[in-house]
Design brief:
The complex is a heterodimer of chains A (389) and B (71).
Chain A: H1 2-11, E1 16-21, H2 26-36, E2 42-44, E3 57-61, E4 67-70, H3 74-82, H4 100-110, H5 113-129, H6 134-149, H7 158-172, H8 177-184, H9 200-209, H10 223-226, E5 261-269, E6 278-286, E7 293-294, E8 301-306, E9 311-313, E10 317-320, E11 332-340, E12 357-368, E13 373-384
Parallel strand pairs in A: 1-2
Antiparallel strand pairs in A: 3-4, 5-6, 6-11, 7-12, 8-10, 8-12, 9-11, 12-13
Chain B: H1 2-22, E1 44-45, E2 52-53, E3 63-68
Antiparallel strand pairs in B: 1-2
The chains are: A alpha+beta (389), B alpha+beta (71).
Chain lengths: 389, 71
């Protein structure tokens, strides 16, 4: 294995191993390294500042900091190790920002939350001035997702904006597989090359079995990030689970007229051509103004989805699961996938809309107000799934 | 004489600001890795503690860099 070979080379003082990861959430890689018991310095390039388009990739860099080989074969690696040392230039580490984007990147990577807001404004300006700037589009998407991932800084629409800008970036540069993966991470199963983080639970089990405490994940894994890819052939995956019985078909539950929850939806489209599949994330945030809290003691809150004719969803009834820490005021989410019904699955062809309108409702157990009134309410919503032409 | 001096100062200020005033917005330039070129000196957070780090801090050593993702 390459790691063992590098370790022996490093022990002989011949090379230094360095890692560079292309992920939005570095703590997941920390967990991976702990699981695999690997240890070497790793730099995090979540903004894709180095324009890396594919992984994995090995790069050889000499003593002077010059790239000597990319994806070397065994012969090139041996020559690199045996080569006489290159003269080291006297270059001081970077201090001040080189330009406005360097400044924005530093605010995103090292700044305080208000710095992230400033960086978002800077990249928004660039995307407005130069809409075809794919790098700016991608980095803006990373920034919005970063703000979304922090409950203290999250704003309504942040996740949707991250997907929107990532999709724009990929449309401008379809060969950028790191960008494609960032969308697929949250996208439909049909479009997934592999399950992204399905290894996490196994890693946590193994690490605990060794008597260690697993590296905690700052951001919980979403359903999309552990979902298995779908390889076609009518595999409906989650669709074939439990009975999907509509919970309030006659619309008898009282409606939430006080907007006790903010409902947001994010549609992540497939990144391939000729497919029609999307993963929809529905986020519900209790209203702080109304003092709303989930009332888990009364039972689970659920979401029901009604797809239009000609379209199907993999699950129509979804449960808003309570988090492990029992928090009652945090946002909760559900995910489902939507796609057209294949002609063979439905008798009689229908004209399919390119932008199906999904209707649905949430039934939630909630307590609210200073007196802590607890009740069971219904709230309807609509989600338009639109594919760009 | 004073007026001529003031006009001179005004021209100097305009010349200094010209690149910023008249620069057209442009896409961000590529920093892609190329064989034979220096590895870009960009500050990135270290995975373990989030502190800024750069390739400059590893100069003087032969580096095998693995670019990867845990997914």
């Amino acid at each position: 294995m390459w790691y063992e070979r590098n370790k022996s080379l490093e022990a002989e003082g011949k090379v230094k191993t360095l890692g560079l990861i292309q992920e939005q959430h570095p703590d997941r890689c920390r967990l991976f390294m702990q699981w695999k018991q690997m240890d070497f310095p790793i730099l995090v390039d979540s903004l894709n500042l180095l324009d890396v388009a594919v992984v994995p990739m090995m790069v050889l860099i000499d003593e002077a900091g010059v790239v000597q080989a990319i994806r070397p074969d065994e012969k090139a690696l041996a020559e690199f190790v045996a080569a006489p040392p290159a003269a080291v230039p006297l270059v001081p580490p970077p201090s001040g920002a080189r330009n406005v984007f360097d400044m924005a990147n530093r605010l995103i990577l090292f700044g305080q939350p208000d710095g992230l807001d400033r960086a978002i404004n800077m990249y928004e300006q660039q995307c407005s001035d130069v809409p075809e700037d794919s790098r700016a589009q991608f980095r803006l998407g990373v920034s919005y997702r970063r703000r979304f991932d922090n409950p203290e800084t999250r704003r309504s629409g942040d996740f949707a904006k991250s997907i929107e800008h990532w999709e724009r970036a990929l449309a401008l540069n379809p060969n950028q597989y790191i960008w494609r993966r960032r969308i697929q991470q949250y996208g439909p199963r049909l479009d997934k090359p592999y399950p992204f983080y399905d290894w996490v639970s196994e890693a946590q089990r193994d690490i605990k079995a060794r008597g260690e405490e697993p590296v905690p994940l700052a951001v919980a894994l979403s359903g999309a990030e552990v979902a298995m890819p779908e390889r076609g052939g009518g595999d409906t995956g989650e669709a074939s689970t439990a009975a999907q019985v509509e919970p309030d078909p006659a619309d008898q539950i009282d409606h939430d007229v006080d907007s006790l929850f903010l409902i947001e939806s994010v549609v992540v489209h497939d990144t391939g051509k000729g497919q029609r599949a999307a993963r929809v994330h529905v986020l519900l945030t209790p209203s702080r103004e109304a003092g709303a809290k989930w009332n888990d003691e009364a039972g689970p809150s659920v979401v029901w989805i009604d797809p239009p004719q000609g379209w199907r969803v993999d699950r129509r009834l979804l449960t808003l699961e309570a988090p492990a820490d029992g928090s009652l005021t945090e946002p909760r989410s559900v995910e489902f996938e939507v796609r057209p019904i294949a002609p063979s699955e439905e008798s009689g062809r229908v004209e399919l809309s390119d932008s199906p309108l999904l209707r649905g409702y949430v039934l939630f157990n909630v307590c609210y107000g200073t007196e802590g009134i607890c009740t069971y309410l219904r709230r309807g919503f609509q989600i338009r799934v639109q594919w760009a032409e | 004489m004073v007026a001529v001096k003031q006009i001179g100062i005004l021209f100097a200020v305009l010349l200094t600001l010209a690149p910023q005033v008249w620069a057209q917005p442009a896409p961000i330039e590529s920093t892609a890795l190329e064989v034979g070129k220096p590895f870009p000196i960009i500050l990135l957070p270290r995975m373990d503690d989030g502190q800024p780090d750069t390739i400059v801090n590893y100069r003087g050593q032969k580096i095998i860099m693995h670019i990867f993702a845990s997914w």
